[in-house]
Amino acid sequence: MSVDLLKPTEIGKELEERLFELKQALLKVKKRLENAPSGHLKLSRKKTHTEFYHITQRGASRGTYIAKKNRPLAAQLAQKEYDRRLLTEIPKEIRALENFLKQTDNLSHLPKIYESLCTERRGLTTPLTLTKEQFAAQWKAVTWKGRDFQDEDKKLLTANGETVRSKSEVIIADTLHHMGIPYRYEFPLKIKKSPSETRTFYPDFLCLNLRTRQEFYWEHFGLMSSPGYANNAIGKINLYAYNGFFPGQNLIITFEAGDEKFDTQIVEKMIQTYLI
Fold it and tell me: Model-level pTM?
């Protein structure tokens, strides 16, 4: 099985966002300096307090004392000196980022090497970073055994041909399928209940974010209006946390209870937030 020797990166996008923010910040700093008062601030530290002075003449060692009622002036002068330093440093970072992104073709130069190969050469070559299609195919090729169905269990068919246990699971599975998200139904997960005790969970879904290669377990709790069920659900969520699975990081949790119905829109928002 081939693996990513170099995982996909979002650094290029992050650097572009950083570059944009730096340029916006530079404009604001320049605007503040245009409106800043003349002169600079001098601090004189006493035993019990610090005094502020406004220096307006070059070479002067002592300027005009800034009384408490004029403290905004001291703040403006302090801000001015800080902004002048920013005015020197921000352009340096802007130039460094622009040069880096230009030299690396916005970090797209490595993937383009594989993309430039003809179809036959691609078939003989393993890229440094697998394409989404290659990674998805290998991820979906894994086999496993889920929980056995009992006679009293519901057996509902998804668009992808799996048998699941509830209408809500059908909604999740079908939405994942239609939005192109690879998933595994009831993929077994070893969970520690304590340092010495382990049990096997069968999370509803294990999903893959192809962009980041990150896996998310997805648990749907569908009977939260039942006190006993809700109590068990809380215990399960706590066990996930004990084992390093946290909502929003590597765990997706959805609920329904009573009149609070579960629908495709909720699933789509979860997928767009964590899996695309």
Answer: 0.79
